[in-house]
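Listing S7. Sequence submitted for prediction.
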Amino acid sequence: MKTSDFYYDLPHELIAQTPIEKRDTSRLMTLDRATGAVGHHHFYDLPDFLRPGDCLILNNSRVLPARLVGQRLPGGGICEVLLLNDRGENIWECLVRPGRKLRKGTKLSFGNGELTAEIVEQLEEGGRLIRFDYEGIFLEVLEHLGRMPLPPYIKEELQDQERYQTVYSKVLGSAAAPTAGLHFTPELLDIIQRKGVRIGYVTLHVGLGTFRPVKEDAIEDHPMHSEYCTIPQETADLINETRASGGRCICVGTTSCRTLESWAADDGHMEARSGWTDIYIYPGYKFKVMDGLVTNFHLPESTLIMLVSAFAGREHVLSAYAEAVRERYRFFSFGDAMFIS
C-alpha cells in the first residue's frame, strides 16, 4: 500500500491547541468496524458502549517534563534540550537546538546553575549525548525545571502541565502523552468499574518517533521506532480471564494496543513480559487480542492512522474522518476521541 492512501484533508483550525475545560466533555465518535456506521456522542457516554465482563486496558506511563531551556556557557545564548533516552551514568540521548552551536564539549546551564551539563558526543541524525550534573534526584530536578515536550503541531504554551498527563499516569518515562487516555476522569473510571468493566494497566513509554512522518512511498518500507513496554502479571491474568469468559478486551490508545499485540500469543493468550517493541501495524495485520479501541484522531499518512485502518478498514476510517471534519471535531493530542468496536 502507498503512504498516500492514508491522506485526508484537514483544515488547520481543527487542530486542537489547548485542552478542553473538562476532560470527559470532549466529543466521542463511535465507529462500527463491520459496517462503517458512525455515531456522535460525548466521552462521558463511553460507559454506554461497554459491557459487564469487558476489560479496559490503560497505559499508565507518565510524561517526563523533558524540555529544558537554558544557556550555553560561558555567557552564551539560549539553548533548548529535549531528553529522549536515559543511557545511564547521568548521560542522556537528546535533541538540541540551535544544533550548529551545540557541539561536543559545549557546557550548558539550566535554572541558574541548579542543573549543568556537557555535550559528550554528537550522534548521527543530529542527536547528542549529554552528561548532566546536579544535586539530589534527577527526576525531581527535572520536575522543577523541565517543561512538557508538546507535539510540534501545538503552538500554544500549556498553562497546566497536568493536562498533558492522564489522571492515572504513574510511571515516568514518556516523551509524549498517551493521548487517548487524556479524556478520562476519576469519576468516569469509577462509573465504568461499577458497570462491571474491569480495568488493567500496561506501561509503554511513548517516544518522539510516534511523530516521525512516513517518508517512504510504500508503507512497508518505513523503519518503525522502538519503545519500551511492560505487561504486569495481574494485567495478563485479567486479559486471559476476560477472553475466557467471553468479554471484550478494549485498549485505550494505540500504545496499549501495540503493547498487547507485541506480546500476545497467536491464540491471544497473554503472559507478563517487558521489553522493547517495534511492532508496525498496518492493513493486513491480524489482531490477536484487541476487540475494541478508544483512540484520538491521528495525523494524515501517519503510522497511527495505519494502525486504526488495520483494525477498522481504511475506507471506513477515512469516511469517518471526513465526517469528523464536516462536523468540526477537534483533532490530535488535545482533540476529540473515537470508540471503534
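Caption to Listing S7: primary sequence and predicted C-alpha cells for the chain studied. The two ends are 24 Å apart (CA to CA). The chain has two domains: 3-63+160-340, 67-145.
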